[in-house]
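Reminder: ligand-aware prediction takes two inputs, not one.
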Amino acid sequence: MNEHELEQMAKKLVEPGKGLLAADESNNSCKKRFDAVSVACTEQTRREYREILLTTPGSEKYLSGVILFDETFWQSTTEGQVFREYLKGKDVAPGIKVDKGLVDLPGFPNEKVTQGLDSLSEGVETYAPAGAKFAKWRAVITIGDGIPTDECIGANTYTLARYARICQDAGIVPIVEPEVLFDGHHTAEQAEQVMSHTFDILFQTMRAFRVHLPGAILKTSMALPGKDNGGVMDNDEVAERTVRALHEHVPPELGGVVFLSGGQTPRDAFVNLNRIAKLGGHPWGLTFSYSRALQDPVLKAWAHDRNQPAGAKELFLKQLELASAASKGELDESALDTDNFVSHAQDL
Ligand code: 13P
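Here is what comes back for the chain with 1,3-dihydroxyacetonephosphate:
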């Protein structure tokens, strides 16, 4: 493992003012999003849509990297340039989702583990020479009656740690993502507790499996009240709880911290990030790695008129500008309420 190169790449991914686009939805997730806007989900339409995101002029000002799904990793622009080469030309790092999705954890109702470890070494040996600079592995932690169990957290943190070390040996920066789901009736306090406990076990396990922490990145949820909690989200409370969980349970030497949007409205995803950044004092670079919060309005615009990709690209650039400002704590939140495309994106 070349520790120095991994550290440099991790730092670059969380460079101030830049963040990540997660464009790595599996074909199943993509189908759900395309169904919502009445577009058939085929290899061609997925390529056509993702080309909008990847070739938006000016996006390189705000993007340090893009997480790709295997299919897109090998696809090309309309002009025939392989996407990952195109990104490299704009100094945007191509990344790859390497996990193979979720399965039930036998014996533990409503809990999941992520599969894909068996074929991972082979996978990274293909992606690394083809230009992948970083990878993502998503595990899911559900809050509910008597869950998460320590067995579920243990099974997931074990695979995250093994995955991370395999990537580092291949020269790829691992993003470890233990997503605490937004779904549920829980409070923000419970979300904070579950995140904190998960981080404790995750980093203990990563150390045990000899992961070089400065060459790895955490992708995390925010400490949100559950989607079905019934209360109104307090953005300041979310920011305080998220920052406390991170500052007290994530090692300062880690390479960076990025957030998923997790099904929040784009508005909440931007405001929460802005408030988190404003609290300051973070020992790591800290930024966005959003899929839905960046893409929802863009997908809607593209589906509305596929012959006018320029309009969708303009929207995407605007979303990136907002996310970038939020990552620096410099977002003008008052402008969001009047921003049609942001506040209505949740209708998708
Ligand atoms: P969302 O921002 O839509 O949660 O997606 C981020 C992601 O990469 C989940 O794995």
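The pocket of 1,3-dihydroxyacetonephosphate is lined by residues 22, 138, 177, 260-262, 290-293 (CB under 6 Å). Residues 188-208 form the longest helix (21 residues). We will return to this case in the review session.
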